[in-house]
Specification:
Largest sheet: none
Strand content: under 5%
Shape: rod-shaped
Number of helices: 10
Length: about 270
């Protein structure tokens, strides 16, 4: 089902909306005789049914809200992972200026190459649902370069220790991002969301009485569209490193394109 998350946003939106509204209205028209028999048999129950239907919708909209918030939190967490990695790389890029030649140039070039590879190769890998590994060897080259350096003075030792600390931070941020590639909402959440939608819409279709049939279709269609909207947002934000809605890779491109040592006219 991973292909579903990689659909273009317009196609995903119209597909989900058409599914919910189409199935709901089609089912309503299909079961018109059943609804007529229920209403004829329980003529005095429409008010009670409307009351219970309201309570069901209150409970289900709470489930919808919590699910959407959970998907948004997952997406925000993915964005924070990316920001942490970019920030640590920026510090390393600036720290390259403190090293003697030719190491400063080598370190700067390796960091640029790593950032460019992440943006151009690993991001497409993530969006396709693959484990990103294109920049793994580039990062290993940075580790080897800094690991082989032996500072001679106390100030160089302190500076190099700080650089290694930032390297550890960048390594942890990279591993966190890579491991989060397949992150998603648990399957049980989707079961509750979709089964709840079926129950709520079935209740509104069969047990709530509206005298005017076109009006009833319109109201039920609006309810189905509302459910479809929330499901669409949840699907778009689920799997935060896949599909069209993902954290931006522009931070890595910025590192790859900055002047030597990470200095820029922006003063950052």
């Amino acid at each position: 089902m991973d292909w579903f998350y990689r659909l273009p946003i317009p196609l995903l939106f119209f597909g989900i909306m058409a599914t919910f509204v189409g199935i709901t209205l089609g089912g309503m028209l299909l079961f018109t005789p059943v609804r007529a028999r229920l209403q004829a048999r329980f003529q005095r129950s429409s008010d009670q049914a409307a009351y219970f239907g309201t309570q069901i919708w209150l409970a289900y909209t709470l489930i919808l809200s919590l699910t959407a918030v959970g998907a948004w939190s997952e997406y925000q967490g993915a964005s924070e992972k990316v920001s942490r990695e970019v920030a640590s790389l920026e510090v390393l890029q600036r720290g390259a200026l403190l090293y003697p030649e030719p190491m400063r140039t080598q370190l700067d070039e390796l960091l640029r190459d790593y950032a460019r590879t992440v943006a151009e190769k690993e991001w497409p890998e993530q969006r396709s649902g693959k484990h990103p590994s294109a920049a793994k060897e580039r990062f290993a080259s940075v580790v080897r370069l800094l690991g082989d350096y032996e500072p001679t003075t106390l100030s160089d030792q302190l500076m190099h220790a700080e650089t290694l600390r930032q390297l550890t931070t960048a390594s942890e941020a990279r591993r966190t991002r890579v491991h989060a590639t397949g992150a998603s909402l648990p399957g049980v959440v989707w079961i509750v969301l979709l089964v709840g939608a079926a129950l709520a819409l079935t209740g509104a279709t069969l047990f709530v009485t509206v005298d005017d049939m076109p009006l009833h279709l319109t109201l039920v269609g609006i309810m189905a569209a509302f459910v479809g909207l929330v499901v669409f947002v949840t699907v778009a934000l689920d799997h935060p490193f896949q599909g069209a809605v993902t954290p931006s890779e522009e931070g890595f491109r910025y590192i790859a394109d900055r002047p030597f040592g990470g200095l820029s006219n922006r003063g950052d």
